[in-house]
Write a structure and sequence with these properties.
Blueprint lengths: L4 H4 L2 E9 L21 E7 L12 H9 L2 E7 L18 H13 L3 E2 L2 E2 L1 E5 L9 E9 L2 E2 L6 E10 L3 E5 L3 E5 L6 E7 L6 H17 L10 E8 L6 E6 L5 H24 L12 E2 L10 H8 L3 E7 L9 E3 L2 E2 H13 L5 E2 L10 H10 L8 E7 L1 H17 L7 E5 L5 E6 L6 E3 L6 E2 L2 H9 L5 H11 L4 H7 L5 H10 L6 H17 L9 H12 L8 H9 L4 H8 L4 H14 L1 H7 L1 H16 L5 H16 L2
Parallel strand pairs: 3-11, 14-21
Antiparallel strand pairs: 1-12, 1-13, 2-3, 4-7, 5-24, 6-7, 6-23, 7-9, 8-9, 9-12, 10-11, 13-14, 15-16, 16-20, 17-18, 19-20, 21-22
Helix pairs in contact: 3-10, 4-5, 7-9, 12-14, 13-14, 14-16, 15-16, 18-20, 18-21, 19-20, 20-21
This protein binds zinc ion (ZN).
The site of zinc ion has 8 residues, from loops.
Length: about 625
């Protein structure tokens, strides 16, 4: 289906978070590297406390986390976190290097620096900050980024501390590693000027490129994260957190638009059916007795463990829960997210998906009968759990169902790897920032601005010249590369393979080979960075011929090891070739003797090349064959 984004009034804003490659963390002297797996650590456990913001209101996002009542465990790796991260010592002054880097990026985005940097506290309630808030400071305002569909405004650029890294999570506890907490992040927020999914991708790409060209940001997985806010005129402004791959941005936007349109359709359908929010029952019913002979394994084992099956009757709702909202996700999935998030239950089962999961047609009939419902018109939801969790889950589901009559609920959602999103938490209220009293404001004075001037970030326009003049790649390839998202990967590889593999080979692998393999249906995106490095360095070292790059990529993507491939395709040494030539002459000795020198060359060439094809240069083989034949025939 073609979606007319402009007609729908699509507005997208990007919030890009990128870790800076400064020596120290933002408010202490710990390093900005994540701790290795085997590092010594200790752990402390804390309970989430009720955080009333200083403006008095309790944040809905805070209420949500408190309702979940989880224990929080902090892992403190030796040498990677100190008392500041633990919130047992006040923060030190803001890291000047990080400030200079972020101001230089701000400059490249045409933003103007603030006169004074004020550190603020932003309430964070999921436990990922030990203090219950994240420190953040606006360092520049305004600015813009060029795009073929019109310039996109930059609203704010902030410098902030990264959160702790979640390493384990269960329904009743969560474990965070403090190594990431405090790493400086630049946060770039665009205005909601973006009108199409493709434009969002271009803008994110361009901002990413500018940061990367500063040479002062971290690279690799997890060092850049994109949040999106997406709205359509008739819908709601939805925050989507944690899009960690650039290429996913257009998908996330398209799916979110479809989801909002579907929720609006559901609202229309509910109105058509003359249903009202008051029709939604506040009561759910224990149906364990009805389900005691059910063959479903989930239900059986849960009942055996003393849990119950609860049902929420939904008169008039037949077909609504099974409606698709986007790419394989149904309205029932949306409700299930609420049940999981608020009740910590495994999920829910709804009548539109039954019979399934071992629940038979007969079970379904008994349930309809027991609940006094009509199977042609009505629906119900089942939750299998203990009472306490079921109660929390149902309360959330009932609230969400009532919101279906209003439209799209204001939510913060998280991106799934396929580009769909799931409910994460309610959107925080406005009252979540207040001043950090432990840190004095910092004047952005001449000396800081002079340091900013020293970091010259090439403009994307200058990159073409660098590629051609400094890397020596052809102008044609370079002009394709600067418009391609693989430019980032190219720059990584050039740096990694400096003095080993020529930039021209790297560029043509990414732009020519990868693209043509993709057209042939090979899933080249599955190749790992490490495998790419292996292939390209083998070419650079002359171990394999550059002609076999496409084949090598194919082999690795199909799951075979590159090492095996390398062994089978390794370029043969002169000694090895000489041996093969000698063998070929020896096993054809009589024929060679009777034919003589000239008439044996073709014969022996053919024998040798059948073994060495793709692994030896034809001209070299020819020379060796002549030399060995001469030796053999000369007494
Ligand atoms: Zn520290």
């Amino acid at each position: 289906m073609e979606i007319e984004y402009r007609k729908l009034g699509l507005k997208v804003g990007l919030e890009i978070h990128q870790q800076l490659d400064s020596k120290f963390k933002l408010f202490c002297s710990c390093p900005t590297k994540l701790a290795p797996e085997n590092v010594k650590y200790r752990e402390v456990t804390r309970n989430l406390w009720l955080s009333k913001s200083e403006l008095g209101e309790i944040d809905p996002a805070a209420l949500y986390e408190i309702a979940r009542g989880r224990k929080i465990v902090y892992r403190i790796p030796e040498g990677h976190a100190c008392l500041v991260e633990l919130d047992e010592e006040p923060p030190h002054d803001i890291n000047r290097e990080a400030l200079v880097i972020s101001l230089s990026i701000a400059k490249a985005l045409n933003a103007r620096p603030v006169d004074e940097v004020y550190v603020m506290r932003k309430i964070v309630v999921d436990g990922s900050n030990t203090a219950g808030f994240q420190r953040t400071a606006i360092i520049a305002l305004g600015g813009s980024i060029e795009d073929e569909d019109g310039a996109v405004g930059i609203q704010t650029i902030a410098l902030e501390e990264d959160a702790a890294r979640k390493i384990a999570e269960e329904s009743d506890y969560v474990v965070y590693n403090l190594d990431r907490l405090g790493i400086p992040l630049i946060e770039i927020s665009t205005a909601p000027d973006i009108g199409t999914p493709e434009q969002a991708l271009r803008v994110a790409y361009r901002i990413g490129l500018i940061m990367r060209l500063s040479g002062k940001v971290k690279r690799g997985i997890g060092t850049i994260r994109q949040d999106l806010n997406i709205s359509i005129e008739s819908g709601e402004r939805i925050e989507v957190k944690g899009v960690d791959k650039l290429e996913l941005i257009p998908k996330v936007i398209t799916y979110e638009v479809l989801r909002q349109l579907s929720l609006l359709d559901i609202r229309e359908e509910l109105r058509r059916r003359r249903l009202k929010p008051e029709d939604i029952s506040e009561f759910y019913i224990d149906v364990s007795e009805v389900m005691k002979d059910c063959r479903s394994r989930i239900i059986k084992t849960s009942l055996d463990r003393g849990m119950k099956v609860y049902a929420l009757p939904l008169p008039g709702f037949k077909g609504i829960l099974g409606r698709e909202v986007c790419s394989g996700r149904r309205f029932g999935t949306e409700l299930s997210d609420y049940a999981k998030a608020w009740g910590s239950v495994g999920g829910l089962i709804h009548s539109d998906e039954l019979p399934a999961y071992g629940i038979s047609e007969k079970d379904l009939e008994s349930l309809y009968k027991y609940l006094g419902l009509n199977g042609d018109r009505d629906a119900f939801i089942l939750i299998v759990s203990d009472y306490e969790r079921a109660d929390r889950a149902f309360k959330a589901v009932i609230n969400r169902l009532k919101y279906a009559f209003i439209g799209v609920p204001k939510e913060t959602r998280a991106a799934n790897p396929d580009g769909t999103t799931r409910y994460l938490r309610p959107q925080p209220g406005a009252a979540r920032m207040y001043p950090e009293t432990d840190i004095l404001p910092l004047r952005v004075d001449e000396s800081i601005l002079r340091e900013v001037e020293k970091i010259a970030i090439p403009r994307p326009e200058d990159v073409l010249r660098i590629l051609v003049e400094e890397h020596g790649i052809s102008r044609e390839l370079a002009s394709q590369l600067i418009r391609d998202p693989s430019l980032h990967l190219y720059l990584d590889l050039v740096e990694e393979l400096r003095d080993i593999t020529s930039p021209q080979i790297i560029a043509s692998t990414l732009i020519v080979h990868m693209k043509s393999l993709k057209r042939d249906g090979i899933e080249v995106d599955r190749i790992s960075y490490i495998d790419l490095v292996k292939i390209l360095s083998a070419v650079g070292r002359g171990e394999i011929a550059k002609e076999v790059i496409p084949e090598a990529i194919k082999v690795v993507v199909s799951g075979s090891s590159f090492e095996d491939f390398l062994e089978s395709r390794r370029v043969l040494s002169v000694e090895e070739l000489e041996k093969i030539v000698e063998e070929a002459i020896k096993s054809n000795a009589d024929l060679v003797k009777s034919r003589g020198f000239e008439r044996s060359i073709g014969l022996i060439m053919g024998k040798v090349m059948s073994v060495a094809r793709g692994r030896a240069d034809g001209a070299l083989v020819n020379t060796l064959v002549r030399k060995k034949l001469q030796e053999f025939l000369t007494p």
